[in-house]
Hints:
The chain is mainly beta. It is 0% helix and 54% strand. The protein has strands spanning 2-6, 11-15, 23-26, 33-39, 44-49, 54-59, 66-69, 75-81, 86-91, 96-101, 108-112, 119-122, 127-132, 138-143, 150-153, 159-165, 170-175, 180-185, 192-196, 201-207, 212-217, 222-227, 234-238, 243-248. The strands form 6 sheets. Strands 3-2-1-24 form a 4-stranded antiparallel β-sheet, with no helix packed on it. A 4-stranded antiparallel β-sheet has the order 4-5-6-7, with no helix packed on it. A 4-stranded antiparallel β-sheet has the order 8-9-10-11, with no helix packed on it. The termini are close together.
Amino acid sequence: MIYWTDTENGKIQRSSIDGTDVEELVSFGLESPLGIVLDPAGGKMYWTDYGNHVVQRANLDGTDIETLVVDQPMPRHMAIDQEAGKVYWTDSSANRVQRADLDGSQVQELVSGIPTAGIALDVPGGKMYWADPFVGKKNQRANLDGSCLEDLVGGLSVQVGIALDLSASKMYWADSDSDKIQRANLDGTQVEDVLSEQGGPRCLALDLHHGKVYWTASATNKILRANLDGTEVEVLVSGHGAPRGIALELS
């Protein structure tokens, strides 16, 4: 299934993987939900709400909402380390990356002084990757504890979503200002355009088993997918609010 946040209308929705059977999961009490990540094994979805300044979770069907972390200036995007039982999130106002246990306890600040947006984890490699579209206009990475900071790709625009294909040693990112989805090696070399003129791609997710990239288009309020090489573009969801954050539940 595809899960997404609608930041403008304050809701979380999902659909079948082909975009059919759209259902609304959470709407009451949300202000500006943005980042979303799934823990299918634990039966939970996690999200940030920068309007309410919180990190929350619920069952995958939207029931049993819990507030995990409060008083966050502008929590944005999320990643999860299921094996270690940790959830990570970025904050573009406090300029940091944080993580906590899945129940919201043991909050740690890992990176400070950097405006951050999208985030992705390479758990086997011990690395986290994130986008700085606000000041540095670059993608960066560090160890999972925040040490060994590296600059990877510079000269970008408003790149927000970031995702990893570890099997191919590639990172993908969505840049709504340049209207492109791009990719590079994990060390930032060999940058190439995958897609262009796709409605202002904002956030993305990969289905590596089927060789697909999914993204939300902020200019057209659609969810689309294509092959990892950019061919066979399909519009999956349209007319259901303004999708922003995106996550996939894959069998």
